[in-house]
Amino acid sequence: MNVYFHELKRNRNSTIAWIIALIAIAALYISIYPAVAQNPSVSDIYKNFPEAFKKTFDISENTLNAFTGFYSLVLNLVLLTGAVQAMNLGTGIISKEVRERTADFLLTRPISRISVLRQKLLTVFTIIIVTDLIFMAADWALIQAIISEPYAFRTFFISTSSLFLLQLFFLSFGFLLGSVTRRIKSVIAVSLPAVFGFYVIGLFDTVVGEKIKYVTPFKFFDVNMLTMGGGYQTGMLVYLAILSIAALIASFVVYQRKDMPTI
Amino acid sequence: MSHKTMNIYLKELKDYRKSLIFWSIAIIAFLLAAMSKYQGYTKSGTSINDLINTLPAGLSALLGFKGLDLQSAGGFFAMCVLYLAVMLGVHAVLLGSGIVSKEETDKTIEFLCTKPVSRTHILFSKLLAALTAVVILNIVTLASSVVTMPLFTEGPSINSDILFLMPSVFFIQLWFLIIGILFAAVTRRPRWAGMLSASVLLATFIISAFVDLSDKVSFLRYTTPFKYFDAKTIYAEHAYDIWYIVITLVAVTLMVAGSEFAYKRRDFSL
Prior knowledge:
Number of domains of chain B: 1
Radius of gyration of chain A: 20 Å
Largest sheet of chain A: none
Low-confidence stretches of chain B: none
Oligomer: heterodimer
Mean pLDDT of chain B: 89
């Protein structure tokens, strides 16, 4: 488990920074809500907005009416940030040995490549789970402190879990990307455009229609529905799981046979 | 400059050609997506502005269109400029930090330093190459906006608005390009340069969103380039604030000088 503990230690500071960033974003937006929610008649006005306009700004009927709707705005931003974290982590942890020229050191140790990868995968999972648990606790505390309306914990938990699901995808995708590329010079220069790319694809929902949900993880679930108490589509969860597992298996297979570029 | 002194500049431009093409494709995709949405909601015939005026200011600020006429193509484009500024800013900050720090992360700095060029020459060649790439991406964005807009809108052309707003994006690109270069030139941990400068971008962006949301923190507008060149304000007043341009030019000069000062003196991490 040496690799596991080593990686955990190496990633400690950046994980703390990511957790702070996520909580700061949530805190900023949640603290706005009391100012926005003052006007009770707003939701009636809002019903008059054309459907296409609402889709453009990704807001639902209830966005103003209740915190349940408003929370989707918060969650959308948190999801975007969390996706970058996961993609960064997945891509970075695989490609770092080559980038930092430590691959020949690590791979001459008496451990198999599978074991290296397995331990790194475990690290990444640990980091994501810790991040999400701490974030959820802080997020829930913020909601309790700032929002006076009742908000069911069940709804909160189910909707905020989408963070973990999305990160799962980007993590596996990052793993795959880290394995198949020969050398990644700068991780952030790969992960940020990749996540933004998927996000921009999601913007084409009005053109492509329903089918867009198979192309970008940002549409695997409908955040607006989730925050108002809806659930996940089982089919899409299975789809997400299959894609993630396939990406992970592929990355293990590729890494096994990879010709490590050394100095 | 003779051909010989252009070597680094030309090499960097060639190295970043592929990345520039990818970024251009992404920007064009974003414009197409955004415009198709605009076309979608204007077709419905409802007067959006009357409805928007009834929304609380906080919410329209949160959604990024406070004070904008979203019915008009120009107003919608001004809102898009906010997103374009973020995307092109990310490109600039990653480019600036990457172009300087990669010699250290790739362990090619020793090779480069054995050539008969000064460190100042290396830094300025890289700065010039990055600046060229940033200008090219800005022009690509401008040109594709001019081409895309008429496909989705009826009524008069908004080319003059596009031409007027795109320089604001350039100033934001300039800020973050130089911030990226500064971080990479100063830090002894080149691997962190990209991450650090990207965090600066994210933080200043969130500050600018926060300034929109609450009047109480309006003094914070001096801390973020996104507020210096806020497309909403520039579109509404149809003018740039000359002082922000002066501040930007002074800051850029200082940061370039600081980068050169540090880069010339420090130990490279090997």
